[in-house]
Amino acid sequence: MTSSPSDPAPNPHASADEVQAALKDTKLAQVLYHDWEAETYDDKWSISYDERCIDYARGRFDAVAGDQPLPYGRALELGCGTGFFLLNLMQGGIAAKGSVTDLSPGMVKVALRNAENLGLDVDGRVADAETIPYEDNTFDLVVGHAVLHHIPDVEKSLREVLRVLKPGGRFVFAGEPSTIGDFYARWLSRATWAATTNLTKLGPLQDWRRPQAELDESSRAAALEAVVDIHTFDPADLETMSRSAGAVNVKTATEEFAAAMLGWPVRTFEAAVPPEKLGWGWARFAFGGWKRLTWVDENILRKVVPPKFFYNVIVTGVKPG
How many CB atoms sit inside 10 A of residue 50's CB? Predict the structure, then answer.
């Protein structure tokens, strides 16, 4: 597992002055927010590198890419976070070798550590998605999960993606928030956070309250989150943007409607209470409920609810060969 020796070091504990500066600088906010979250990100989002998340990642890929000759030779994950998407796709047989990039040094560090623990052939760079530090025609596949909505100039980044792809190479970006989905997800999250942090002030429930210092740090992170989440997408607009960047065979899919209405309150509640209060029973409820509602989304609601109302957008395209 290799990274560039010139890459900056992670800064996981931003000062109040740094946070204040980042409120006016979205790229600084990206670094501070994601460095702050890097070491706990997998736990926060229930990310694993086992069959559960391998199946999830492979399902998102197959939803838009369909049947492909596998594995791809070399894949890049843009805005890799902790490596969730690429590492699970590699374990699922999608790619043989990988590279990860992220604007956050902390995320690259964790992604490379996860890759090493899994025995996967991966290198990494701290990099801006608008200026990808690889030569033309380097990769067979570029992937990303919940990354495009963080990038100031999405079309410029997509042009960079197509530049580093080999002719005939494919990109797949999943987990992008739809405009309507983001509205109801944020409303549910804010309501859950307010209810939980206020109710746990009451005497009988104080054992369920995180220390105030942790809640204050979460509030500072939330302030940065409002800066780092730049875009939401209408699926048709994301297709148009991909074609404008030069891609062909562009396709989108959407997912999670009822499942998102459970998932966002669940994740917010988990962030607001001490983790030791939540055991296997809670985990079974959260994951089991999400799976059941995902089934409802896929088999019932997809037939009657317009695609733009679902929370997640997935997009794929191909570099002309």
Answer: 9
